[in-house]
Structure formats: C-alpha cells, structure tokens
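Researcher: Here's a chain I'd like modeled. Treat it as a single chain, no partners, no ligands.
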Amino acid sequence: MDDVPYDVLRVFCGPDGRHGNELGVVRDGSLLPGRAERQAFAGKLGFSETVFVDDPERGVIDIYTPTLRLPFAGHPCVGSAWLLDVPELSVPAGVVGARLDGEFSWIEARAEWAPPRTLRRYGSAAEVDALPVPPSGEWIYAWAWEDEAAGRVRARAFPGRDDGIVEDEATGAAALLLTDRLGRALNIRQGAGSQILTAPQPEGWIEVGGRVRLAAAR
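Model: Modeled as a single isolated chain. Structure tokens:
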C-alpha cells in the first residue's frame, strides 16, 4: 500500500489560485480493488475525501472519507472532472454531468444525492468568521449573505466527525444543498479563501463549479 501512487489536487481554489480543499486521487484504482483496502488507504492519507478511478475513459470513480464510502461528494467530483476531462462521471448515486469552461471545472448533480447537512444561517459574514468549531456529532454548514442581491455568500463547514477533520475548507455537496434551498445561483466564499460557484438548472439539476490545481503527484 505504501507504493501506491496518487495525486493531490486542490479543488475550489480562490481567484488567486490559493486555498481549495485537498483531494487525493488514485488514478489506477485496480491497485487497491477492495473496499477495505481503499478505506484503509483513505484513512492513511487523511484527506477529507480520496477518489479511486476505476475507469478513466467512462469516468467511473469511487469516493471515500477517512472513515466511510460515499455515494456522491462535490469536491471529489469537481476535481475528478478536471483531472479526467470526461463529459460525465459515474458514481453510486448516479451519472454526474461534467464540463470544463475556461478556468472552471463544473459538475451537474442533484441535491438529493448529497448527504444530510444542517444549513445554519447567520446574520453577517463577520458572525460566520468568528464561529468556534462546534462539538462533534452534527454536520453544520454555517453561512451568511455577503451581498444578497449579487448572490455572494460567506460559509464555513464543520463536519462534526471524529476523524480529525474539524473544518472542511470547501464543500461542494453542502453548496449544492444551499443552492437547492435558496433556488438561485451563488458565489460562495468558504473556509480560508476558497470559491464555489453554483447555478440551478432545469428539472432539479444543479451545477457546481470551481478552480482545480494539481498540488502534488506522489
């Protein structure tokens, strides 16, 4: 397991190319074919999510946190769409549309695919900035309007898990849920300086997009 190569991407980088949520990607999923092996490797890497690519041409991917397998997740899909450059991704939740548009990588998914999140609104961006990390147990997406007319949101994400990840720098699935609730396109500034863009589409689909950078190949 120690010699399995993987890439590290930063997904949802800010306009200056910094920040973003780190994502581990094992391009050759056949090196770790079993779920137990993949779970152990994801736990060893310690990223909020790790992707195993099972078919790069068809975009078949498998997503793990350090402690569990996910049927869908936002930033792993956006990062994989950028890396594989395919028109769609296949995850257990369904088929995810994918496209590249200039500096942004986009996916199209459904809010019901996202795991449950508590979307907690605050009165100002300053209140969100000042929040301490809450006790574990509840996955909280704290948000406030920075400019409601322009659709600009300030957000922070607290997974409430016991795997050492107390705050998630950029969370596509939570942005998907917030967009579904508000019914409008959003420009989200999350964490230390990550940027997530969203846009509702017909028939319940929602686009989620952001910048992706290759941080390392190991």
